[in-house]
Protein backbone atom coordinates (compact mmCIF):
# COMPACT_ATOMS: atom_id res chain seq x y z
CA UNK A 1 0.00 0.00 0.00
CA UNK A 2 1.21 3.51 -0.66
CA UNK A 3 1.82 5.44 2.54
CA UNK A 4 -0.93 7.73 3.64
CA UNK A 5 -1.85 10.50 2.93
CA UNK A 6 -0.04 10.12 -0.35
CA UNK A 7 -1.71 11.62 -3.39
CA UNK A 8 -1.02 8.39 -5.30
CA UNK A 9 -3.80 6.76 -3.25
CA UNK A 10 -6.23 9.34 -4.58
CA UNK A 11 -4.77 8.92 -8.06
CA UNK A 12 -5.39 5.16 -7.89
CA UNK A 13 -9.06 5.74 -7.12
CA UNK A 14 -9.30 8.42 -9.81
CA UNK A 15 -8.06 5.84 -12.34
CA UNK A 16 -10.60 3.32 -11.08
CA UNK A 17 -13.32 5.96 -11.25
CA UNK A 18 -12.43 6.61 -14.89
CA UNK A 19 -12.38 2.87 -15.65
CA UNK A 20 -15.74 2.41 -13.93
CA UNK A 21 -17.24 5.23 -15.99
CA UNK A 22 -15.76 3.73 -19.16
CA UNK A 23 -16.55 0.04 -18.73
CA UNK A 24 -18.52 -0.41 -15.50
CA UNK A 25 -15.70 -2.30 -13.79
CA UNK A 26 -15.35 -1.71 -10.03
CA UNK A 27 -11.58 -2.06 -10.24
CA UNK A 28 -9.26 -3.62 -7.74
CA UNK A 29 -10.68 -5.30 -4.65
CA UNK A 30 -7.64 -4.91 -2.42
CA UNK A 31 -8.23 -8.05 -0.39
CA UNK A 32 -10.11 -10.15 -2.89
CA UNK A 33 -13.38 -11.96 -2.77
CA UNK A 34 -12.50 -14.38 0.02
CA UNK A 35 -11.97 -11.70 2.66
CA UNK A 36 -15.48 -10.34 2.02
CA UNK A 37 -16.98 -13.82 2.16
CA UNK A 38 -15.13 -14.48 5.45
CA UNK A 39 -16.58 -11.32 7.03
CA UNK A 40 -20.15 -11.98 5.86
CA UNK A 41 -19.99 -15.64 6.96
CA UNK A 42 -18.90 -14.58 10.44
CA UNK A 43 -21.78 -12.09 10.75
CA UNK A 44 -24.26 -14.73 9.57
CA UNK A 45 -22.84 -17.47 11.79
CA UNK A 46 -23.19 -15.23 14.84
CA UNK A 47 -26.70 -14.20 13.78
CA UNK A 48 -25.75 -10.53 13.87
CA UNK A 49 -29.10 -8.75 13.33
CA UNK A 50 -29.62 -7.35 9.84
CA UNK A 51 -30.46 -3.90 11.25
CA UNK A 52 -27.13 -3.63 13.12
CA UNK A 53 -25.23 -0.46 12.26
CA UNK A 54 -22.07 -1.30 10.31
CA UNK A 55 -19.15 1.03 9.56
CA UNK A 56 -16.67 0.13 6.81
CA UNK A 57 -13.46 2.02 7.66
CA UNK A 58 -11.64 2.95 4.44
CA UNK A 59 -14.39 1.66 2.19
CA UNK A 60 -12.43 2.18 -1.06
CA UNK A 61 -14.74 1.21 -3.90
CA UNK A 62 -17.55 0.23 -1.51
CA UNK A 63 -17.85 -3.33 -2.81
CA UNK A 64 -17.95 -4.88 0.69
CA UNK A 65 -20.95 -2.67 1.57
CA UNK A 66 -22.73 -3.75 -1.61
CA UNK A 67 -22.15 -7.42 -0.70
CA UNK A 68 -23.43 -6.76 2.86
CA UNK A 69 -26.52 -5.07 1.42
CA UNK A 70 -27.10 -8.07 -0.87
CA UNK A 71 -26.88 -10.29 2.22
CA UNK A 72 -29.71 -8.30 3.80
CA UNK A 73 -27.86 -5.78 6.01
CA UNK A 74 -29.73 -2.50 6.04
CA UNK A 75 -27.80 0.01 8.14
CA UNK A 76 -24.50 0.48 6.30
CA UNK A 77 -22.00 3.34 6.32
CA UNK A 78 -18.73 3.61 4.42
CA UNK A 79 -16.05 6.23 5.04
CA UNK A 80 -12.84 7.01 3.20
CA UNK A 81 -10.51 9.98 3.42
CA UNK A 82 -10.12 9.92 -0.38
CA UNK A 83 -12.92 11.87 -2.12
CA UNK A 84 -12.23 9.87 -5.31
CA UNK A 85 -12.84 6.63 -3.42
CA UNK A 86 -16.18 7.93 -2.13
CA UNK A 87 -17.13 9.07 -5.65
CA UNK A 88 -16.26 5.62 -6.96
CA UNK A 89 -18.26 3.85 -4.23
CA UNK A 90 -21.22 6.17 -4.96
CA UNK A 91 -21.09 5.09 -8.61
CA UNK A 92 -20.91 1.43 -7.58
CA UNK A 93 -23.83 1.96 -5.16
CA UNK A 94 -25.93 3.59 -7.91
CA UNK A 95 -25.15 0.84 -10.41
CA UNK A 96 -26.24 -1.79 -7.86
CA UNK A 97 -29.29 0.26 -6.80
CA UNK A 98 -28.36 0.16 -3.10
CA UNK A 99 -29.94 3.26 -1.59
CA UNK A 100 -29.43 2.10 2.02
CA UNK A 101 -25.64 2.58 1.93
CA UNK A 102 -24.42 5.88 3.41
CA UNK A 103 -21.05 7.15 2.18
CA UNK A 104 -18.94 9.97 3.65
CA UNK A 105 -15.53 11.51 3.16
CA UNK A 106 -13.99 11.17 6.64
CA UNK A 107 -10.51 10.91 8.07
CA UNK A 108 -10.84 8.11 10.62
CA UNK A 109 -7.96 9.57 12.65
CA UNK A 110 -10.09 12.68 13.25
CA UNK A 111 -13.68 11.46 12.92
CA UNK A 112 -16.61 13.88 12.96
CA UNK A 113 -18.97 13.83 15.95
CA UNK A 114 -21.81 12.11 14.08
CA UNK A 115 -19.61 9.08 13.46
CA UNK A 116 -20.57 7.15 16.58
CA UNK A 117 -22.69 4.38 18.07
CA UNK A 118 -21.83 1.62 15.57
CA UNK A 119 -22.52 -2.03 16.42
CA UNK A 120 -19.85 -3.30 14.03
CA UNK A 121 -16.71 -1.76 12.51
CA UNK A 122 -14.85 -3.46 9.66
CA UNK A 123 -11.33 -2.72 8.46
CA UNK A 124 -9.61 -4.43 5.56
CA UNK A 125 -6.28 -2.78 4.94
CA UNK A 126 -6.86 0.72 6.34
CA UNK A 127 -5.01 0.04 9.60
CA UNK A 128 -2.24 -1.44 7.41
CA UNK A 129 -2.05 1.73 5.30
CA UNK A 130 -1.91 3.96 8.39
CA UNK A 131 0.82 1.74 9.85
CA UNK A 132 3.00 2.38 6.80
CA UNK A 133 2.84 6.16 7.09
CA UNK A 134 6.46 7.37 7.23
CA UNK A 135 5.50 10.29 9.49
CA UNK A 136 4.76 9.05 13.03
CA UNK A 137 3.12 5.70 12.24
CA UNK A 138 3.07 4.74 15.95
CA UNK A 139 1.23 7.95 16.87
CA UNK A 140 -1.27 7.40 14.07
CA UNK A 141 -1.94 3.83 15.24
CA UNK A 142 -2.74 5.21 18.71
CA UNK A 143 -5.10 7.76 17.18
CA UNK A 144 -6.75 4.95 15.21
CA UNK A 145 -7.41 2.91 18.37
CA UNK A 146 -8.79 6.03 20.08
CA UNK A 147 -11.13 6.70 17.15
CA UNK A 148 -12.29 3.09 17.17
CA UNK A 149 -13.16 3.36 20.87
CA UNK A 150 -15.20 6.49 20.08
CA UNK A 151 -17.18 5.18 17.12
CA UNK A 152 -17.83 1.57 18.26
CA UNK A 153 -20.41 0.86 20.96
CA UNK A 154 -19.31 -1.00 24.09
CA UNK A 155 -19.71 -4.74 23.35
CA UNK A 156 -19.54 -3.88 19.62
CA UNK A 157 -17.53 -6.03 17.21
CA UNK A 158 -14.43 -5.00 15.26
CA UNK A 159 -13.40 -7.21 12.33
CA UNK A 160 -9.92 -6.49 11.00
CA UNK A 161 -8.16 -8.02 8.00
CA UNK A 162 -4.45 -7.26 7.77
CA UNK A 163 -1.56 -8.15 5.47
CA UNK A 164 1.10 -6.46 7.59
CA UNK A 165 0.50 -7.62 11.13
CA UNK A 166 0.52 -10.98 12.88
CA UNK A 167 -2.18 -11.98 15.34
CA UNK A 168 0.17 -11.30 18.29
CA UNK A 169 1.03 -7.83 17.01
CA UNK A 170 -2.64 -6.93 16.50
CA UNK A 171 -3.52 -8.19 19.98
CA UNK A 172 -0.86 -5.84 21.31
CA UNK A 173 -2.07 -2.87 19.21
CA UNK A 174 -5.70 -3.25 20.33
CA UNK A 175 -5.14 -4.33 23.94
CA UNK A 176 -6.49 -0.99 25.25
CA UNK A 177 -10.25 -1.38 25.24
CA UNK A 178 -10.65 -4.54 23.15
CA UNK A 179 -10.58 -8.28 23.69
CA UNK A 180 -10.14 -10.92 21.05
CA UNK A 181 -13.12 -13.15 20.28
CA UNK A 182 -11.68 -15.27 17.51
CA UNK A 183 -9.25 -15.59 14.68
CA UNK A 184 -10.82 -16.26 11.28
CA UNK A 185 -9.23 -18.84 8.98
CA UNK A 186 -7.16 -17.30 6.19
CA UNK A 187 -5.09 -18.85 3.40
CA UNK A 188 -1.73 -20.27 4.51
CA UNK A 189 1.49 -19.97 2.55
CA UNK A 190 4.72 -21.90 2.86
CA UNK A 191 8.10 -20.22 2.75
CA UNK A 192 11.44 -21.88 3.44
CA UNK A 193 9.70 -24.85 5.03
CA UNK A 194 7.76 -22.69 7.49
CA UNK A 195 4.01 -22.29 7.19
CA UNK A 196 2.65 -18.83 7.85
CA UNK A 197 -0.31 -16.63 7.05
CA UNK A 198 -0.06 -13.86 4.51
CA UNK A 199 -3.33 -12.43 5.84
CA UNK A 200 -4.52 -12.18 9.44
CA UNK A 201 -8.24 -11.77 10.19
CA UNK A 202 -9.39 -11.19 13.78
CA UNK A 203 -12.64 -10.36 15.53
CA UNK A 204 -12.39 -8.14 18.60
CA UNK A 205 -15.08 -7.05 21.00
CA UNK A 206 -15.02 -3.63 22.60
CA UNK A 207 -14.92 -3.89 26.40
Automatic annotation (TrEMBL):
It holds the Pfam family Methyltransf_31. It catalyses: L-lysyl-[protein] + 3 S-adenosyl-L-methionine = N(6),N(6),N(6)-trimethyl-L-lysyl-[protein] + 3 S-adenosyl-L-homocysteine + 3 H(+). Keywords: Cytoplasm, Methyltransferase, Nucleus, S-adenosyl-L-methionine, Transferase. GO terms for biological process: methylation. The keyword Methyltransferase applies. It comes from the Eukaryota. GO terms for molecular function: protein-lysine N-methyltransferase activity. InterPro entries: Efm4/METTL10, Methyltranfer_dom, SAM-dependent_MTases_sf. One of its GO terms (cellular component) is cytoplasm. SUPFAM superfamilies: S-adenosyl-L-methionine-dependent methyltransferases. Residues 53-182 form the Methyltransferase domain. HAMAP family: Methyltr_EFM4. This is EFMT2 methyltransferase. It comes from Certhia familiaris (Eurasian treecreeper).
